[in-house]
Write a structure and sequence with these properties.
The complex is a heterodimer. Chain A is built from six helices and four strands. Chain A has helices at about 10-25, 50-80, 90-120, 125-130, 145, 150-160; strands at about 5-10, 30-35, 140, 165. In chain A, α2 packs antiparallel against α3 (about 90-120). Chain A starts with a strand and ends with a strand. Chain B is mainly α. The chains are: A alpha+beta, B mainly alpha.
Chain lengths: ~170, ~450
Amino acid sequence: MPDDLVAVFTDPDLAAAALGRLSAMDVSGARVISPAPYPAVHLTGRPGPWRYLGAIALVGGLTGLGAATALQVITSRSLNIIVGGKPIVSWPAFGVVMFELTLLFAGAFNFTALVVLCALARRKVPAAARRLVDTERIVVVIPAAQARGADAGRIRGALGDAVEVRS
Amino acid sequence: MSDSKITQIERDTLATMASTSWLYWAGLAASVGLVALGGWAWSLALRRGLGVLGLNEPVMWGALITTFVFFIGVSHSGTLVSAILYFTRSPLRAAIGRSAEAMTVITILTAGLYPIIHIGRSWLFFFVLAYPNQRQLWPNFRSPLTWDVFAISSYVTVSGLFLYMGMLPDLALLSRHVTGWRRPLYRMLSLGFSGTDAEWTLFEKAYPIFAAVVIPLAVSVHSVVSWDFAMSLMPGWHSSIFAPYFVAGAIFSGIAMAILLLAGLRRGYKLERHIKPAHFDLLAKLLLAMSVVMTFVYLTEFFMAFFRGNAAEVETFRWRATGAYAWVFWLVMVCNGVAPLACFWARVRRSLPALIVISVLVTIGMWLERFLFIVTTLAHSYDPANWGHYTPTWPELLICLGGFGWFGMLFLIFVKVFPSMSVAETMQHEHALSLPAAEETEVSHAG
């Protein structure tokens, strides 16, 4: 996104203060890129499709439960061997594998969802700005539409603590 | 938080990767030496057959299965403790979480070697995997041994992902700071994580979900290992207390191992700023609490056996405390029940040498405890005509020592290739402490 205003801060508190000032000026759509989950990353309205994560993990768990059930029931029925007087389809004994695979699939789905959703979410932030972040550099990005408006001067003023502001 | 402080955090947390002391090389050489010895002893078992091991009727599970159960136990607590520390928002997590999680993954990988070695024809180990009807193999899902395969493989996968997920932000940062072969490796492993606010939000939502998955899985895996024994009708094993007993023992041995690893990291890489006496104090209190739980379980086992009066069970427990392995039994009591009681004293909890000695004793005690209950039950069960005695042979002991070397070697390689402390979490934690409100809270707590 050309013409975005990019400000680089070396102190997370100064970045948070700048975001506070921008918020007071009703500047919306600012994004933060940070090396650690400092408070500043929580001042942009928690963007991203994170609401899906719980549901995806649940779907994963249910998939694991179904897979474990199918594996055990189909296999035991096809072999049809009675062991220790237990029924062919022996639910208490099958419960252990069902439990393990439920959690395994829930975890795997959760991880995969994180990776995929992160890849989708980060595309909304310019790659050039993402490359600026480092252990000592927190980056604030103001969308071009906001940065070019009537408040452009005030926005630049709000970013006064930044060590570098570029567009 | 000042630039210099951030740089200091970065330098400290990446210290294990940046510098290599003589202590590191000595540790690695010792570990590789043990692996070589263990590998040679294993090759002996492969070339000459399992006859070189001391296993014989009636004791067909010995030192190898003992080591398997021991390492599974150690693996149990790393990820569990890390997940619990996450939910309790403990500052301890930033310092020890990564090492504990790595310990878990490496110990499972170590533990998994022993059933493979124990089966003799190790190249056919994949026969233990349960898949339907192929080559007329018979996956018996009613058997705890089949449950074991699922539990352990699920645990190693989930623990590995948990460790990896926590490392994603660090790998992204590292890829900007390193050169050579590490740069493309870290860039690839970071999966594109770049630290945008949306990614952090996703990360902070996904991580607790994963931690919530890890905790029941960790408890279940050692319960399932305990059921390898408890689901049989053998005296000394067939007990409803076995699952919680194993879980408690696993946490106990895992904490001892964590203390040893953290003490080594602290000393070797001068991480005194991050791994503090207060952290060891907390771990020592946990060790003490678990020791008391273990003593209670030991006494409960005896009480139940003698109260019920089942002749075989009474005889097994009587023999365990007074028979041929009585010295092992009493050594276990001293190592696991008596030595950790020293942690009642604050001076001991804050003395690193004292804690190291206690942790070594607990590690030895826990290995012997697993040996004791496996061997005494098999050697002295229902039929007196079938009673026997088992002594591990030296190839067996070398294979077991090789496992400790394998564990040490993988851990040392891990801390050299990946950060042993979370950079992002440490920066977040230090930043929280630098806020005025946090300083006031700290002062008021101290007061």
